Amino acid sequence: MNKALLPPTPKGRKYEQEARKIRSFAGLRRDDERLDPFALAPYAGLLVVDFSQIEGLSEQARNHLLGEGANDWSGGTFTRLLPNGRQLVILNPKHGLQRHQATLMEEVCHVFLGHKANKLEITKTNDQGKIVARDYHDEDEEEAYAVGAAALVPYAALHRFITMGKTTYQIAKHFGVSRPLVIYRIQISMLWPEYKKRHSAEVEEHNQKYNQAFAKSGKT
Ligand SMILES: [Zn+2]
Fold first, then answer.
1. How far is the CA of 199 from the centre of ligand 1 (A)?
2. How far apart are CA 112 and CA 121, in angstroms?
3. Each residue's pLDDT expressed in tens, for the chain with a length of 220 residues
4. What is the pLDDT of residues 175-205, one digit of tens each?
5. Are 133 and 123 contacting, i.e. CB atoms less than 8 angstroms apart?
6. Which run of H or E residues covers position 56?
7. Cβ distance 20 to 154 under 8 Å?
8. What is the Cβ-side half-sphere exposure of residue 71, based on CA atoms within 13 angstroms?
9. Closest to 123 in 3D by CA, of 151, 95, 150, 84
């Protein structure tokens, strides 16, 4: 077996190793195979239920979570065990499958990485795919999200795809994840300059949008 490429930073390398363990547990052999968090969830003791199946929510709460508040949460895990020993995970039905992949993968990673949870974890990601609300310790949140993202989009494959000239759109489609997640992976892996060399117009456009969104949020 040839030694696969690892990210340049120590943290990146650590997360990548964890991600590889999870991928190999999932039975994946190649670094460019698509990981299915939904197939992995039962092994982490997670039961993913549809939002519509939750009983006991008031009409008002339901309307809020799916309406005005729909952007405030990506998924929730009830860490109190169900009678069958599983933990209940609910994914925001207003978010697409691609975003669900990252949200669910983060929940799977909390379990696989042995993180200690609070009673209820509510995860919120923003448009850039970054977590902006959390209920685990900060470092656990960072680790779970980063390892989950690395398991979904492995560094070696990402590096190769960029060298081949693939776009973020193509890479996202290949792995079945959102484009913001791919951009996050490229940036955190220090591959953004390499990517920019080949797709400068796209990167400019992305930076412009990002700056606009930043200005809008009232921060400077
Ligand atoms: Zn989390």
1. 32
2. 16
3. 345 789 999 999 999 999 999 999 999 999 999 999 999 999 999 999 888 877 777 888 888 888 888 887 888 777 667 788 888 888 988 888 999 999 999 999 999 999 876 655 666 666 655 544 456 777 888 999 999 999 999 999 999 999 999 999 999 999 999 999 999 999 999 999 999 999 999 999 998 988 888 887 765 4
4. 999 999 999 999 999 999 999 999 999 999 9
5. yes
6. none
7. yes
8. 4
9. 95
Length of the chain: 220
Q: Tokens at residue 24, please?
A: 């190999």
Asked whether the beta carbons of 151 and 19 are under 8 A apart, the reply is yes
Between the CA of 162 and the centroid of ligand 1 the distance, in Å, is 29
| Distance from residue 191's CA to the centre of ligand 1 (Å) | 25
Q: What pTM, to 2 d.p., does this model score?
A: 0.86
Q: How many CB atoms lie within 10 A of CB 136?
A: 21
Distance from the alpha carbon of residue 212 to the mean position of ligand 1, in angstroms:
28
Say how many Å lie between the CA of residue 190 and the centre of ligand 1.
24
Amino acid, single-letter form, for residue 64: H
User: Ligand 1 center to residue 127 CA distance, Å?
Assistant: 17
Q: Give 84-145 as a DSSP string.
A: TS-EEEEE-TTS-HHHHHHHHHHHHHHHHTTPPP-SEEEEEE-TTS-EEE-SS-HHHHHHHH
What does DSSP assign to residue 83? T
